[in-house]
Amino acid sequence: MVGDSVREPGPYYDTNLLKPLTMLEALRKAGVSRLIFSSTATVYGEPQEVPITEDHPTQPLNPYGRTKLAFEGALESWRRAYGLGYAALRYFNASGADPEGRVGEDHHPETHLIPNVLAVALGRQSALRLFGGDYPTSDGTCIRDYVHVADLARAHVLTLERLQPGEGLIYNLGNARGHSVREVIETARKVTGHVIPVEVCPRRPGDAAVLVASAERAERDLGWERRLSDLPTIVETAWRWRREHPQGYGD
């Protein structure tokens, strides 16, 4: 997603900015007064301090983050002009699958780490392509904050209960805990019982070395609690769904 937006920025400006602006105007005409927006941690760029608070400067490194941030700016303009109430929820790495196995992660093409690791475990890929082993981190790989999708869903409900017309809210949604790419791979090896070969490749353009959230604002304002926060649980729920749906939703 991030690297793809650097190579082909046009579709990201269309999907993340142009079409949503058309949607915003349609919502205004229909009298919709509140909106929750799925934003992203990539709006921060390379962090100046970790964990990252909502007040951290926004300096995105790639078109994906730039377009998300631009639409956040549009929401603020609509709030001031028309009284729209909005909440921009800045996801860190949304991961895992429904614990009851009803829904899981299935993108085409797949760019997210955990589904690609599990594809190797299933034998659908010969090796995992690891983008960059020379970052200034403990093991040379990127560090990310993985948050379970069920916890994210709960945050949406709490935000909708809190949000009022005319308000502009911004919340980081993450676990306030970082894991390197190699940690994720090792966790997946333990969960799946498979070797999972790795091929180290050059860095992708636009990737920050470390992105870890401070979620104190969401905890304080919304009463948000993360119930599926540990990495083995996140990977295990994703693995369970993927084993039952090896072709994804094509099954």
Q: Oligomerization state of this entry?
A: single chain
Strand percent estimate: 15-25%
Which class in CATH terms? Alpha Beta
Order of helices and strands: HHEHEEHEEEHEEHEEHH
Sheet with most strands: strand arrangement: 1-2-7
Shape: globular
Please give the largest β-sheet.
3 strands, parallel
CATH H-level superfamily? NAD(P)-binding Rossmann-like Domain
| β-strand number | 10
What is the overall pLDDT average? 95
Summed up, the domain count is 1
**Rg from Cα:** 18 Å
Q: Which stretches are low in confidence, meaning pLDDT under 50 for 5 or more residues running?
A: none
Give the helix/strand class: alpha/beta
CATH topology title: Rossmann fold
Structural notes for this entry:
With 251 residues, the chain is an alpha/beta fold. It has a single domain (2-246), classed as Rossmann fold. It is 41% helix and 16% strand. It has 8 helices and 10 strands. It has a 3-stranded parallel β-sheet, with helices on both faces. Strands 8-5-10 form a 3-stranded mixed β-sheet. Strands 3-6 form a two-stranded parallel sheet. Helix 2 runs parallel beside helix 3 (63-82) and helix 4 (113-121) packs across helix 8. It is globular.
